[in-house]
Give the backbone structure.
Amino acid sequence: MKRAASLLAGMLLVAAMVPAAAQESSEGGAYYEPGTYPRLNVKRTVLNYQRCLESPIHGIMESSLGHIIWLRLVRPDADLTPLKEEIMRLAVEGPTCCIRNRARLAATVFDSPGVFAGVAKVPYGSENELFAQVAARAENLLFTDNR
């Protein structure tokens, strides 16, 4: 019971921080500040995202997938391998169609961040805009003649 309460409190804290971060940027988007985030504690961030991906709340899972994509794009050097197994599981067994599709997009970005490098150079007001851009880039690659 204590673990569940701690997990829920952590998820609520993460969810509360996203709007605050969005308000700090001049454009008002959560995915606005491209950069390398040199002071980011990657181990702690990965642990937090793992917990969020296990959440019973679908919105937290969806939002976390967007943040994982963003992190993979802005920090391709970061070791995010602990997240990969859970992302692959969600791509197949996710509780909703939306989560499964977003997990598939996250897995694609996870495997080939260089292909999506330009996506991180554009400001996004929401995770939906980020997912739309990633999906458009993936679709463009899929239907481009690569002979």
About this structure: Helices lie at 2-24, 42-53, 58-74, 81-93, 97-111, 127-143. The chain has one domain: 2-143. The first helix runs from residue 2 to 24. The chain has a mean pLDDT of 79.
